[in-house]
Amino acid sequence: MEVAAVAVVGHHLCSRLADVTDDLTALESSGFWAVAIDFHGKAVCARFDSVRPARPWKGRPWKGLPADTWTSSLDRAGFGAGVSAIREMIGAGDVYQVNLTRRLSAPLIDPDTDIAALGAALAEGNPAPYAAVLRLPDHGVHIASASPERFVVRDGRWVESSPIKGTAAEPSGLTPKDQAENLMIVDLVRNDLGRVCDYGTISVPALFSLEHHPGLVHLVSTVQGRLRPGCGWPELISATFPPGSVTGAPKLAALDAVAALEPQARGVYCGAVGWVDADRGKGDLNVAIRTLWIEDGHLHLGTGGGITYDSDPDDEWRETELKAERLLAVATGEYIHL
Fold first, then answer.
1. Which residues lie closer than 8 Å to 176 by C-beta, 6 or more apart?
2. Residues 149, 160, 181, 319: which is the catalytic one?
3. Is residue 197 part of a domain?
4. 149 has catalytic annotation
């Protein structure tokens, strides 16, 4: 079955694909762009000629994948070993925090599986403020994101990032460890934005805000600043990518740890998905967590969390289960409408 390119980003329904490029300077040109950047920095920027308000899905409904076909790139023991290894790195002074993740995968039953149908199911079963769908069949891009986290929003020269660190089933489950995680990443994001923003404009208007999302709560902080003259989307993304909340601190050392401990590349998971209106000088990119994508005949979902010296392997494993639970219920078609 042939399907057309489509994007649903920022409550916009985009169709009539006009151009696709991996060159981020295109975002400084003209037109409306849907954007996906994988964790390793590979970008896909798709310009669409038709952009209108999103409307309810009218296509074929999502058919869930059997629950017993899903596998994890790290089992419980392997994930626990990764937590222990990170604690040793922290004890040695190599890092302060590392985000450790695992990939859940299931083989597709129907080769005509449509990621847009899954995106519609997620919108009903796991609504999220930075949800996005991007389907570019000719470019191998099939992404459905139910992200609760903003990577960066831009309005002219002003930019803002809202990292999430701290997750629990309910507010009483949040701990001082969650606040410590959050504060470390706020400092990292301040430093990242400081590389492209005017001196003295970096501020933190919100610290440790509590946000409620389907099935869990998060601690969210906000960092903002004003871009220096000559800095646009390419410079902003170069300075801040990958998002600090899904890497760790210091970022470069944390990335080395991720590469050593995770058996599979993250792909679009923990990258960014969103939109840029180049004509209006605005855009909004999410952190591609709570994100599913199709690749190599499988549907994939990533889940993970920030590891600090106080982390307990069993608690961290349960957090990855909590984050994936509702999405898996939607993906398997077992979500119960309440």
1. none
2. 149
3. yes
4. yes
pTM of the full predicted structure? 0.95
**Active site (annotated) includes residue 165:** yes
Would 254 be classed as within a structural domain? yes
Give residue 265's domain range: 6-56+64-331
Dist CA 168 CA 233 (whole Å): 33
Report the CATH number that the domain containing residue 171 is assigned in CATH. 3.60.120.10
Count of domains in the chain? 1
Quote the tokens at residue 5.
Answer: 């390119």
d(CA 332, CA 338): 17
pLDDT in tens, the chain (338 residues): 678 999 999 999 999 999 999 999 999 999 999 999 999 999 999 999 999 999 888 888 898 999 999 999 999 999 999 999 999 999 999 999 999 999 999 999 988 899 999 999 999 999 999 999 999 999 999 999 999 999 999 999 999 999 999 898 999 999 998 999 999 999 999 999 999 999 999 999 999 999 999 888 999 999 999 999 999 999 999 999 999 999 999 999 999 999 999 999 999 999 999 999 999 999 999 999 999 999 999 999 999 999 999 999 999 999 999 999 999 999 998 753 32
The active-site residue, picked from 28, 58, 63, 165, is 165
